[in-house]
Specification:
single chain, mainly beta, OB fold (Dihydrolipoamide Acetyltransferase, E2P), 5 strands
Length: about 120
């Protein structure tokens, strides 16, 4: 999955020892740029923690991630885990430049009803 948003917070790094050695975990929060913005906390592990350290608050980022839920003692927990983080160009627009604008539809002069089809096809 993929999400794009503004970086609003970088959470403190966590580390510890596991059966496979030392682990490092980080997390950050992004806010979507939708009509109704949503904040999403995303986890990063291992070398991805260093990628987050290169980002600044208010940077626009695109994150590819996986969502996973697990059950523990009858309760479910969901994690959003990033596997790719890309800083986006601040001047990027949501509409690609190579898409031409849509034509405007206006009534033709002298037309009685612009909603009538101009050809005789039945479909």
């Amino acid at each position: 999955m993929e999400i794009t948003g503004k970086l609003t917070e970088i959470l403190p790094e966590q580390s510890g020892q596991g059966k496979n050695g030392t682990w490092v975990k980080g997390a950050f929060v992004i806010e979507t740029q939708d009509q109704y913005p949503k904040k999403v906390c995303i986890d990063v592990w291992g070398d991805k923690v260093d990628v987050v350290k290169t980002l600044n608050i208010n940077d626009l980022v695109k994150v590819d991630f996986d969502v996973e839920s697990r059950e523990f003692n009858g309760k479910w927990y969901t994690n959003v885990k990033a596997w790719r983080i890309e800083k986006q160009n601040a001047g990027a627009t949501s509409t690609p430049a190579n898409n031409p604008p849509l034509p405007s539809f206006t009534e033709e002069e002298g037309s009685a009803n612009s909603f009538e089809p101009t050809d005789d096809l039945p479909f």
